[in-house]
Amino acid sequence: MNPVIQREFYGILRSPKALAMLLILTIVFSVAVLMRWPSDASADLSGSQSLEVFRIFGYGLLAGVMFLVPAFPAVSIVNEKNDGTLELLLNSPLTAGAIYFGKISGVLLFSLLVLLSSLPASAACYAMGGIDFTAELGLLYFVLLLLVIQYSTLGMLVSSYAQTSDAAVRITYSAVFALFFLTLIPHAFMQGTGDWGMLKWVGDWIRYLSPLPAVMEIMGQSSVASAGLKETNSTLGFVIVTLVSSLLFAVKTLTRLNYRIFDKSRAQGVITDDRGLGTRVARRLFYIVDPQRRKAGIPWFLNPVMVKEFRCRRFGRMQWLLRLIAFCAVVSMILTSMTALGVTSWGVNSIGALLVVLQVMLVLVLTPSLASGLISGELDSGGWALLRMTPMSARQVVTGKILSVIWTLLLVLMATLPGYIMMIVIQPTMITQVQIVLICLGWTAAYVLAVSAAIGGMFRSTAVSTTMSYVLVIALFLLPMIVWLRREAPFGQDTVEAALKSNPVGAALGALQTPGFESYDLLPAAWWFAGFVTLFMLFILGIQVWRLTRPD
Amino acid sequence: MSDSEAVVETKDLTKSYGDFTALDSLTMQVGKGQILGFIGPNGAGKTTTIRILVGLSKPTRGVAKIAGADCLNESRKIKRLVGYMPDEFGRYNNMRVSEYLDFFGAAYGIGRRARNRRVDEVLEIAGATHMRDLFVDALSRGMQQRVGIARTLMHDPEVMILDEPANGLDPQARIDMRFMLLRLAEMGKTLIVTSHILPELARVCDLVAMITKGKLRAFGTLDEIMKDIKQRRTFELLLLKGDQVDRTAAAVRKWLEQHSAEETLGKSDVTGAPAETMVRFSTSLGDEALSPLLTHLVQQGEAVAQFREVATDLEDAFLSVANAGEQGPQMKASAPLPKTADAGANAQ
C-alpha cells in the first residue's frame, strides 16, 4: 500500500475534529430526515412527501461537501512544505505521481466517509418510497462524489502554490464559493436576452461548473435562473466539466510536485524609492499605492496595530482593494445606466438586488479571511508574546486589529455607492429603500466581522480558524437562503420569515422589493438580531483576548 | 552585593502546574551591567523563569523583581524596563525590517522622529543596518536574531532577556553575537542569556546559573563554580597498547576503591577506551593522595605514556552539576557577585 495514503488517511482520522465532524453529520442528517418523517396514518401515494425529505437531505449533503471537503486538501501540500516533510518525500524513491495519488486518496477516503455518514438518512429516505434508487439517489451520490474529486484536486492545486496554510484555506474556499455561485451569473445574465451565440454557449458551460443546477435537476426542480423551465442536460454537463476540470487541476499540481516547488529565492527587498524616475512614475500610475515604496513612520494619531495589520497582510492590501473598489464602482454604475437607458429589461429593483448580492458575496469572501486570523495569526507567528510585552493594552491591540478590518469593509461597502446614487437619480422615490439597504449592508459587515473574529480567536492555528470562520459564516448566510428557496414546500411563511431574520441580507432584498422577498416582514427584527449577535460575538472575543493577555 | 544593588532579583520563586513543579524555590540576584548565563537542559525551567520575569507567567510562590518593580503586579513598569527576545522570532509577513522596528517603537509610544532615529541606532548596534529594507519573513535565522535584538533594544530597556540568541547561528555569527552581548553590557544593560551552546556563554558571562528539573543547582561566577567542580577532577592515562586498557582500568578501579571513600566511587568513574589506548577516571582525591597511583601502575608493569588532568570547562561543569543535582542539594544557592568591570575580563 502507498505509505502516503496510509499516513494521510490515518492522520485525518486521528484528528478528533474529523471524528466529531463525522458524528455531527450523521446526527444532523438523521435528525433532518426524522423531522420530516410522516407522522399521520394516511399513506402518501404521490411520493411528494418523500421527495420533500429527499430534497432537504440532498441539499444538506451538498452543503456538507461544500463546507467540509475543501479544508483538508487545501492544507495538504502547504503544511508538508512548511514543515519540511515534503522535501523528505520528494527525496524518497516515491514518484511525484505516487505522492499525489497518496495524498489525494487519503482526502478522498475521508470524503467518502463524509458521504457514508449520510447513508442511514438516505436509507430512510429510500424506505419512504417514491425515490428512484438509480436515477435519483444513486445519481445524487455520483454527482457529489465527482464534486468531492473536483474540490479535492482544486484544494491540492491551491495548496501547491500557497505559502501559508491559512492562505491556502482562504483561496480554496473563495474558489469553491466562486465555482458554486459566481459561475451561475453569466448564464443568468443571458437568460431571456435573445440569442447571444457563442457567448451564451460559453455561459452555459461555465454554469455547469456549479453543482447546483445538476443537483436541482436530480431533485426534479427547475434550476437557478432557468425561468421555470426544467432542464435535462445539467447533470451531464456537470459530469463532463467536473471531470475535465479535475483532470486539469490534477495535472497542473503534478507538474509542481518537484524541486521547483522550493526553487524560490528570498525577496531581495527592492525599494521603489531607490529606482529610476521612470520606474517610480510607472509604478505609481499602475499601483496608485505602491506596495514597494519606503513607508513613513506610524503617525501618533493612528493605532500602531491597525497600521501593522494593513502593512503585513498579503490578502486585502491597499493597491488591490482600490482596484477592486474601482471595478465594483464601474460595474455598479454600468448596470444602473443600462437599466436607465433601457438596454436591459431589468427594473431598478432587480439591479439593486444584484448589487446587494454581489456586495454581500464580497463581504462574505473578504471578511473571514481578514478577521479570522486576528488573534490566531499572532499566536501562530509568535507575535502575541511580543505584543503582550509592549505597553499597549489588550483593548488597544484588539481595537487596532478590528479597525483594520472595518476600514477595509467600509471601502468595499462604499464601492457600490455610485450605483446606488444613480439608482436614486433614476428613481428618487427609492431613497428610503437605498438607505435601508445600506444599513442592512453595514449590519451584514459588522455581523460577519464579529462572528469571524470571535470564532477565529478560539483557535491557535490560523488555518483552522480561517476554515471554521468560513464554514460558519457561509452556513449562517446560505442556510436561510436554502430555506427561502424551499418557501413553497416544505417550509411555510413563518419558518422562512424566521430564517430570513437571522441575517440582514433578506431584509435588504425585501426593502428593494426583490421578487420572492416582498411578502416577508423582516425589519427591524433582522437589525435587532444582527446587533445582538454582533455584540455577543464581540463580547466573546473580548473574553478570549482577556484570557490570552493574563499571566499564565 | 546588597539587595538594593541587584537589578534582577528572585526570592523563593516557584511555579507549579498541578502536581508538577516546573520551578522550585529559585533565589538569585544579578547586578547592573552583568551578564547572567542561564543554563539547563530542555524542560529545566529556564523559559518558565524568564516568562515570570517578563510578566507573562504568574509564580505560584515567591517574588521576582526587576529594578525594584514587582514582575507580577507592576507589569507596565516591567514592560518599559525589560527587553525580551523569545526563542521564537515573531515574524510578520510582508513587513520590511524598518517597518517592523517602527511598529514596535510606536507600540512603546516613541514619537515618530525619535523612532526614526532609534531605528537607525538599534540597527547599527545589532550590525543589521544593511537589512533595513529586507522583508522580515525573508530573513535567515542569523539575520532574524540580529533584528530580534534590534527590536528588543527599541525602547532602550535596562534589562535584556534573550532566550537562546545563539541558536542556529553559524560560527562567525556566534562570534558576532558574543561581541554584541559584550557591547550591550558595556552600555550598562543587564543581560540574562539562555543558551545550549555553553562555550559561547563561558566567554561572555559574569555569572552562571545552572538549573535542572526546576531547581537551581549552581549559581555564581564561572571561577567559583569551576572551583566547586574541581573538587572532583578527571584524569586520563594514555597507554602504549590497546590490550593494556582493560587491565589498567581494573587496576585503577581497585586502587581507587582502596584509597577513596566508598560513597564517592561510582561504576562510571573509571572507563576504558581501547581505540584510544586510554583509561579515564574521575576522583575527589587531592594531588598528594593520588600521586602513588602512577607508581603503583608502573610497579604492576603497565607502560604509561601520559598521566594528565583533563581541563574542566563549562560543559563539564554543567554535566557534573546536573548529575550531582540528581542526587543531592544545590552546590551553591547564592554567590557574591563580581564587579561589573570583570565582565570584559571574563570574555577575553
Explain this structure to me?
The complex is a heterodimer of chains A (552) and B (348). By secondary structure, chain A is mainly alpha-helical. Chain A folds into three domains: 3-37 and 47-260, no CATH class; 271-299, no CATH class; 302-549, no CATH class. Chain A is 72% helix and 0% strand. Chain A has 26 helices and no strands. Chain A has helices at 3-14, 16-35, 48-68, 71-83, 85-90, 96-116, 119-127, 133-161, 165-180, 185-190, 198-207, 211-218, 234-256, 277-287, 304-312, 318-340, 348-371, 373-381, 383-389, 394-414, 417-426, 431-456, 462-485, 493-500, 504-511, 525-549. The longest helix of chain A has 29 residues, at 133-161. The radius of gyration of chain A is 25 Å and the shape is globular. The mean pLDDT of chain A is 82. Chain B has 348 residues and is α/β, with parallel strands linked by helices. In chain B, 38% of the residues lie in helices and 25% in strands. Chain B has two domains: 3-228 and 317-347, Rossmann fold (3-Layer(aba) Sandwich), CATH 3.40.50.300; 231-309, Alpha-Beta Plaits. Chain B has 13 helices and 14 strands. In chain B, the strands form three sheets. Chain B has a six-stranded mixed β-sheet, sandwiched between helices. The chains are: A mainly alpha (552), B alpha/beta (348). The interface between A and B is large, with 36 and 45 residues.
The average pLDDT value of chain B, as a whole number, equals 83
Fraction in beta strands of chain B: 15-25%
* Count of separate DSSP helical elements of chain B: 13
Which strand-content bin applies to the residues of chain A?
under 5%
Helix coverage percent of residues of chain A?
over 70%
List the helices and strands and how they pair.
The complex is a heterodimer of chains A (552) and B (348).
Chain A: H1 3-14, H2 16-35, H3 48-68, H4 71-83, H5 85-90, H6 96-116, H7 119-127, H8 133-161, H9 165-180, H10 185-190, H11 198-207, H12 211-218, H13 234-256, H14 277-287, H15 304-312, H16 318-340, H17 348-371, H18 373-381, H19 383-389, H20 394-414, H21 417-426, H22 431-456, H23 462-485, H24 493-500, H25 504-511, H26 525-549
Chain B: E1 6-17, E2 20-31, E3 35-39, H1 46-53, E4 61-66, E5 69-70, H2 75-81, E6 82-85, H3 97-107, H4 112-125, H5 141-153, E7 159-163, H6 171-186, E8 190-194, H7 198-204, E9 207-212, E10 215-220, H8 222-229, E11 233-239, H9 244-259, E12 270-273, E13 278-283, H10 287-290, H11 292-299, E14 304-309, H12 314-327, H13 342-347
Parallel strand pairs in B: 3-8, 3-9, 6-7, 7-8
Antiparallel strand pairs in B: 1-2, 1-4, 4-5, 9-10, 11-13, 11-14, 12-13
Helix pairs in contact in B: 3-4, 4-5, 6-7, 8-12
